[in-house]
Specification:
This protein has about 180 residues and is α/β, with parallel strands linked by helices. The protein is about 40% helix and about 10% strand. Strands 3-2-1-4 form a 4-stranded parallel sheet, sandwiched between helices. Helix 3 packs across helix 6. It is globular and about 60 Å long.
């Protein structure tokens, strides 16, 4: 779809006609993930490995995630997660909305991410300070490969907000 968008929308940044003329030589490479790295059955970063056959073991990772982030141990609440960059492309207002909507509707929310922009990090640090005493929310303003694996293994829902996204890996990892 990205090749089509580059030829027929403003995503081509002015090269649409040239890309259209040479479309037989213009294609794309599908995104994908390394299943040796993102496999919950063999993942060394998660405390409890699981597969489709042992899916109930995923709940043990959910408890481990709650322990790690000091969330209330409430099995009736789903955990909503965001893992990724904190930048305008992702729709910072959408991330904040997902956080507020989750908490207001009886879910828990975890975030793992950072921004190259100091103001954005400061905004989310301020939000973290404001929500610090909530047993249903935890924000980590950084990136950690190990924490990302734990969040994906323990979350019930992963939000993937974006103002535009040719093809993201987050939804593939979450699956």
């Amino acid at each position: 779809r990205h090749a089509w968008e580059a030829r027929h929308t403003d995503q081509g940044c002015g090269l649409g006609h040239t890309l259209y003329v040479h479309q037989d030589r213009f294609g794309g490479i599908l995104n994908g993930i390394d299943y040796d790295v993102w496999n919950p059955d063999t993942d060394p970063f998660i405390p409890h490995r699981y597969s489709a056959a042992t899916r109930p073991d995923k709940a043990r990772n959910k408890r481990a995630l709650r322990d790690r982030f000091w969330l209330a141990q409430d099995d009736n609440k789903p955990i909503v997660a965001y893992v990724g960059r904190l930048d305008q492309q992702k729709g910072l207002h959408l991330i904040r909305h997902a956080l507020c909507h989750s908490i207001w509707n009886g879910a828990q929310f975890v975030l793992l991410g950072s921004s190259p922009e100091g103001d954005v990090n400061n905004y989310f640090r301020h939000l973290k300070d404001h929500l610090n005493d909530s047993p249903d929310c935890h924000l980590e303003i950084c990136f950690s490969e190990q924490l990302a694996h734990l969040i994906y293994a323990g979350a019930d829902i992963v939000v993937v907000p974006s103002m535009y996204e040719p093809c993201g890996l987050t939804q593939m990892i979450a699956m």
